[in-house]
Design brief:
- The protein is of the alpha+beta class.
- The chain contains ten helices and eight strands.
- A hairpin with a 2-residue loop joins strand 5 and strand 6.
- Helix 9 packs across helix 10.
- The longest helix is centred in the last third of the chain and has 15 residues.
Amino acid sequence: MMDYSTIVQIGDIYVNGDVITEYFSCDYPVCKGKCCIAGDSGAPLGEDEPEKIESAYEAFSPLMSERGRKAVDEKGFFEIDREGDIVTPVVPGTEECVYTLFEGENCFCAIERCFLGGKCRFHKPISCRLYPIRVVKLGEGTLGLNLHKWDICRDAFEKGRREGTRVYQFLKEPLTDAFGEEFYDALCAAAERING
């Protein structure tokens, strides 16, 4: 259940208070990237992201699984989920994102691996980079930033608490990339007031 007792407004963006107060630090050695292969549907995509994925596909597709490439051949670079949102395709019969790279039991994003290797210019979907924040459209150009709590990330919330790393601090780079430096600076200022 979401706690809506504290909402921070920065321009046209409404930030749920738990983005500021909760702790989070991805604990990959524990979860092994399960967010790439679990969920109700693929990762949400911005309207311009399918085109960016298609442009970079030749560079990162060799890193994908054969079943992932086959699914892209059949479905294309995106699909529409049951809520009408644009999302990454999943491998039929699974919850696995087609763009997953497998190394033993470990799951990675093939797009991200390619980007980090300097072989493509597209990072990976911003919804993946911002997780556990979920962005919702509130209407009339306004957005809401909510914290999503998922069992597979339980250890990440505990690790963040041990390290003293808040959600907004862990996600500094993607928040800045998505909404700009002024937004992030204002978010930090609000966090200082709220967290003391």
